[in-house]
């Protein structure tokens, strides 16, 4: 099966991808760090600038296409994946990035979001997750934790939140990664990995909203917490964390547990080795569900497997149909059979 690769160029820099538009987010917003990481990542892909397209829906995150010096579409609420799918099918050489906030993706855009993952179209989805609606001034979102007091839930939300990982695994997603807005280096690395993945990549960015949900992710991002509550996963490497990397994750029966090397006879050989490429998503989901206070948060590429993409399947089907089709163009159809001319 022949795969069309986009033309490459090796001379682009971060500055080439910086827009001349004034970036208008609230001072201190995590979106600035995401933008910086993206403009650091794009030159590393060696793709022509005109072959990048950024697509967004509605929300604070949706301003992103204005701030990257590429082609872009600011579309309608929740429908970004549909536009991104059409763009990729129309021109498979394009590197298509779809930007969504947690409300845009998981509320009004829920069906588009999960079906993009299920189809495995070769696009990259970046999910800005600040667990709140920011642009509409602080209502609770599908990822807001139970009990969160907001303008629309003055007594605390009674709903259970969505977890992006659950949706990805349930929709048979082939790539899921998680990062944080306080670590631009990790974000950059993950964006590069996502772009090189064939299929739908979903990158969840735990992002801070300083105005309406400040410190939403402080349990893992605060200076005093980050060593003990961030697990940076690398394929093929043991799951170690902590300031001195003496803590690790071990599988005990059907549960994961946090252990300390040197205590109770635990050695590094007891620590799980991360396999992001396993076809079985069971352990990927277990890792993605970990959270403080009992576990660290798993960051990095959690799942990355290869499967036929939707665009590859469409191209193959088109070739099969051409072999048996009676007509191969509109002209052939219009000029078939009996014809006449009207003067």
Largest sheet: 8 strands, mixed
Helix % is 25-40%
- Total discrete domains: 2
- CATH fold-level name of the largest domain: Rossmann fold
| Class by SSE composition | alpha/beta
CATH homologous superfamily designation of the largest domain: Thiamin diphosphate (ThDP)-binding fold, Pyr/PP domains
CATH architecture of the largest domain: 3-Layer(aba) Sandwich
Spatially, the strands of the biggest sheet line up as 2-1-3-4-6-5-11-7
Can you offer a commentary on this structure?
Helix 1 (31-41) crosses helix 6 (184-196) and helix 3 crosses helix 4 (110-119). The protein has 343 residues and is of the alpha/beta class. The longest helix has 15 residues, at 310-324. It is built from eleven helices and eleven strands. It folds into two domains: 17-237 and 275-316, Thiamin diphosphate (ThDP)-binding fold, Pyr/PP domains (Rossmann fold, 3-Layer(aba) Sandwich), CATH 3.40.50; 239-273, no CATH class. Strands 2-1-3-4-6-5-11-7 form an eight-stranded mixed beta sheet, sandwiched between helices. It is globular.
List the helices and strands and how they pair.
Layout: H1 31-41, E1 52-56, E2 71-74, H2 80-90, E3 95-101, H3 102-108, H4 110-119, E4 124-129, H5 164-170, E5 175-180, H6 184-196, E6 201-206, H7 218-221, H8 226-229, E7 230-232, E8 240-241, E9 247-252, E10 255-260, H9 282-289, E11 297-304, H10 310-324, H11 330-334
Parallel strand pairs: 1-2, 1-3, 3-4, 4-6, 5-6, 7-11
Antiparallel strand pairs: 5-11, 8-9, 9-10
Helix pairs in contact: 1-6, 3-4
């Amino acid at each position: 099966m022949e795969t069309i690769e986009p033309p490459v160029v090796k001379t682009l820099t971060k500055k080439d991808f910086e827009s001349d538009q004034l970036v208008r987010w609230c001072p201190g917003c995590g979106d600035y760090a995401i933008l910086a990481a993206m403009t650091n990542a794009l030159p590393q892909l060696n793709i022509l600038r005109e072959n990048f397209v950024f697509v967004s829906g509605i929300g604070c995150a949706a301003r992103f296409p204005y701030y990257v010096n590429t082609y872009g579409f600011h579309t309608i609420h929740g429908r970004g994946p549909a536009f991104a799918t059409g763009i990729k099918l129309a021109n498979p050489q394009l590197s298509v990035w779809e930007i969504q906030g947690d409300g845009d993706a998981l509320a009004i855009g829920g069906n588009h979001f999960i079906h993009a993952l299920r189809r495995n179209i070769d696009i990259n989805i970046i999910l800005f997750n600040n667990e709140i609606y920011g642009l509409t001034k602080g209502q609770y979102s599908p990822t807001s934790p139970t009990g969160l007091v907001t303008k629309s839930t003055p007594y605390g939300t009674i709903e259970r939140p969505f977890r992006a990982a659950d949706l990805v695994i349930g929709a048979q997603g082939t790539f899921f990664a998680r990062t944080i807005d306080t670590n631009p280096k990790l974000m950059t690395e993950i964006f590069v990995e996502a772009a090189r993945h064939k299929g739908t990549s979903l990158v969840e960015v735990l992002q801070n909203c300083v105005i309406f949900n400040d410190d939403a992710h402080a349990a893992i991002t605060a200076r005093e917490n980050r060593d003990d509550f961030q697990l940076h996963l690398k394929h093929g490497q043991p799951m170690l964390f902590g300031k001195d990397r003496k803590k690790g994750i071990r599988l005990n029966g059907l549960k994961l547990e946090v252990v300390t090397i040197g205590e109770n006879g635990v050695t590094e050989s007891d620590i799980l080795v991360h396999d992001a490429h396993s076809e079985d998503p069971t352990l990927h989901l277990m890792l993605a569900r970990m959270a403080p206070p009992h576990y660290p948060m798993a960051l990095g590429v959690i799942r990355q497997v290869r499967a036929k993409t939707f665009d590859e399947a469409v191209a193959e089907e088109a070739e099969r149909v051409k072999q048996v089709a009676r007509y191969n163009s509109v002209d052939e159809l219009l000029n078939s059979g009996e014809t006449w001319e009207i003067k």
